[in-house]
UniProtKB/TrEMBL annotation:
It comes from the Bacteria. The keyword Transmembrane applies. It is a multi-pass membrane protein. It is found in: Cell membrane. InterPro entries: Electron_transfer_protein, NrfD-like. This is Polysulfide reductase NrfD. It comes from Vreelandella glaciei. The keyword 4Fe-4S does not apply. The chain crosses the membrane at residues 20-42, 54-72, 92-115, 146-167, 187-206, 218-238, 265-283, 304-325, 345-369.
Amino acid sequence: MNSTIELLAPRYDIAWYPWAVQYFFMIAVSYASLWLAAPALVFGKKAWLPTARLALIACVSTTLVAPVALLADLHQPLRFWHFYAYANSHSWMSIGSVVLPLYLVSVLGLAWLAWRPALQAQRSAPGLSGMLATWLSLGSGITPRALVAVVGLAALGLSSGIMLYTGAELAIVKARPLWNTVWLPPMLATTGFIAASGLVLVLNRVSGLCSQTAIRQMLYVLLVTCALAGLVAISWFLDGVNAHVGSVAAALESVRHSDSWRNTALWGGITGLALFAAVLLLLTRPTLRQPGVRGAPTSSQPALFAWAWLLGLVAIHMGWMFRWVVLMDVQHVARNSAGFHHYGIPAGSSGILGIVGTFGLWLAAILLIELFIPWRQAQQGGLIATPTHATQDASSTHSLTAKKGASSHV
């Protein structure tokens, strides 16, 4: 007697759309940028002020946009109140719904305290900028430096909570071996710092600040974080290769026969090594090793700013693509059958339009800050003197020469 057995596998829709990629990317850039701004704004390291000013605008803009992407990923955004009506202390998402609003408030509070002295100096400016500065500065009193440090420390503590919950809510999913590993949270954190450092380098160029000090500091951060990310990736791989059981071994087995996954791993490894080598090469340039020497040749400055800007774009690409692979490509791997599922990015709000729209909203936030907030004068509280016409002209001249490639020792 002959018999036939048919195995049927149900069709599952993907659980997380590209909105989740946007949220995980934005929030990682947010907490990493906050840590890059902390040495100057929280701990008073004046040498980090140029970097801190750029990092703060990156932090505020991404902190404002990230919750929008998160709400969109809920598929029904108005149901966010369920997190509070039906709180669950055993759910990392539920914990995140409490930490995220507190983090948002702390970042905005730190930014206001850092920008307030400059807003006070801008109250006499004509037009809308002066009116907004008068309203936002909330009086003419001194901004206590201790208050800036306290709010900054609170924001750093809450950012650690964001770092923990965004990694843990993926790592606890046992149905996905590619997620269910202790190596994922540190990899998300290190690539977040890579992307944030790259964004600071890009903002340093496009804003006209052109600070050589910021370039040097961010290149060192990139060097360290690339090395750490490489260590985590190698440890992750060795864990799976040397183990016969466990989530990492199961994860490698699930993608062993996939050409696309091998190509993705190869692309990620080559890009990371190339970025590390390029940063190391750029750090050996004499103009970066001796930034304070007046006699350093100025002809190399345009090339320095151009290379730093390009490396920043590559770093941003690495941070975003890692999250796309983790959140989207992992969902291609079949959970209850062999093989891989195909996912085509739709053109609507759950696909390309959502990705472009999120980055557009982010750009709009940066432009509004650029228009109405004197972020270039951010400092750790205190008072800032009203700039005279002479100092304004000098700053304008400095900005123009920096754009032309003259030496900058900010």
